[in-house]
Amino acid sequence: MLHFLAPLTLIALAQLRLARADYSTLFVGCVSYSFSPSTSTSTFSTLDAQDCASYCYGDSQGPWTYAYFNPEAPIRKRGPAPTMCICSMEAPAAAEYATSSDTTGSATCDTNQLTMLTSASTYTFEGCYETAKLDNPSTAKLGTYADPQGCLASCKAYEVAAWYPLSGGLSCACASSSSFERGTLGGCGPTRPYFATHAVGDSINSQFAKRQLRERLVKERSERTALCPKAMTACRVPGAFIDSFECINTAEELESCGGCAQGFFNDNDAANASIGVDCTSVPGVARGGVSCTSGTCEVFACRPGWVLLAGACVPS
Known about the structure:
Blueprint: H1 7-19, E1 24-32, E2 40-43, H2 49-58, E3 66-70, E4 84-88, E5 113-121, E6 124-128, E7 132-134, E8 141-145, H3 148-154, E9 160-166, E10 169-175, E11 180-182, E12 194-197, H4 207-223, E13 233-236, E14 245-248, H5 267-272, E15 290-293, E16 296-299, E17 306-309, E18 312-315
Antiparallel strand pairs: 1-5, 2-4, 3-4, 3-5, 6-12, 7-11, 8-10, 9-10, 9-12, 13-14, 15-16, 17-18
Helix pairs in contact: 1-2
């Protein structure tokens, strides 16, 4: 029996494809079926892995970085057999990457695994190899990243991005295609190098890329804490990059008195302290007519036209 999609479903799928028309999806691994990201959304009505990626890109809560697809959802309903599509910003730990039984190096996962894709990418999947090595590592960019997208973004200026899962993250190599010696194609898995290629310099300039950056910065900041000497606080530097800070004694600092006037760098400080005050901006205060003592602005001189009254300058 033939099954037909309802017109509204067809329209929705077409809109999702148009939203991602400028970019392709990219296969980035086979994942254990038990993988369960802490933050995600899901649907049981996509046709295949590509439609799953389109759904994740066009979802109202997205764009999501990753799409996880399985052709057999763990639910039962009347009509066509449901599929499972999970959208998330999270990538699995190295131990959750699974080995495909496919030996051709293609983007094929077993039915008891999740097919993992980026919902939009400038890269094209080349294949998985049993072995690979760099002829001249000094000409390549090497690093370890938390997820495939980190590796892909790092390799923007290179023709090839190659990675494989390690216990501490993904080992990543960026280089020209001719710089690699590739072995025999093999089933994709945690011990096999994944290869993807794109035109040098291509990138995604969209809400998708902006959300990826925001999520990555939030994650990185949550994983590290700025350390300052005792009695000093890590405060944001105005106009600088989000990870810039300076150590300030907020009990005495004139421009951040009582706390960080430009915001705290460490989340725990922000939760347990008050926003500071720039004492020099207090209305009516004369230049050099204020100090910060024990976290409080103390005014002792006012500008012409103002008078000191009860520790504050008021118009005369």
